[in-house]
Amino acid sequence: MLRILAPTDFSTDGYNATLVAMQLAKALQAEVVFVHAMAKPPVPATSPESLFQSVYQEEQRKARIRLLDEAQHLFDILDLRHADVRYSTLVVPTPFADSMLQVISSENIDIVVMGSRGSSQLKQILIGSNTLELMRVSPVPLLVIPSDVVFNGFENIKILLERMKLPERLGLDMLSRIAHTYDASLHFLILTKDGEFVEDVSELQSDLTVWEHLLKLPNTTTLLADSEALVGLRAQLTATNSSLVVLMPEKQSMWESLFSKNISEELAARAHMPLLVISPYT
Q: What is the CATH classification number for the domain harbouring 141?
């Protein structure tokens, strides 16, 4: 069975992401694993180990109860039965990214669904530091949900390609499953060198059957030359009615450029669109 990891810090932003995770799980007939990464309790360093363990175990117990309460609340407001979506809960230690990588491996996770906020630092106020960190290292696709998104499915999907080639990614199977589940239409935005041209994305060569399956859906193509890439991306991604934007970074330099230019933050905050990140590690 497909498995969705839904980390939460019990904030409003985390709650909205778990809500989407439950809705996605029902549509995909998947199981949800709710997880909370808990920091060490504030026990003085001079305290005996037995005291630390006692406090830590009590905090774990409280976190598990909060996870169960949040899961039940999601069932109630979505009017779901427990037979509709299977779920489990985990409380893990920080640091966040290390624990998430371990859970992804041990729980056979197929996709992670996270909120877009979670940090008070100015440069990370739109996409939280935990989310940014996991974006760069996750071995499975990461779905980032802006805090104010009202989820109504993924009917219009915009896919950003960094060059004139359809990339090979294990995570493409997840994209294909999502796109076909919601009968989506696809719009490809291709960053090109000045002078490169294709009529549409079907002209690009790929030996992967998953791309053939994806391109059976209605699709259109827009080319963005290097010289106009940043302006064109902002215009395309903020002016259209897309319900999901897919990022598939090809190399570290472009990856860093995307984030240094705050494009991802603009998507989450201004365009109010979920992001599906399929990194080179997937």
A: 3.40.50.620
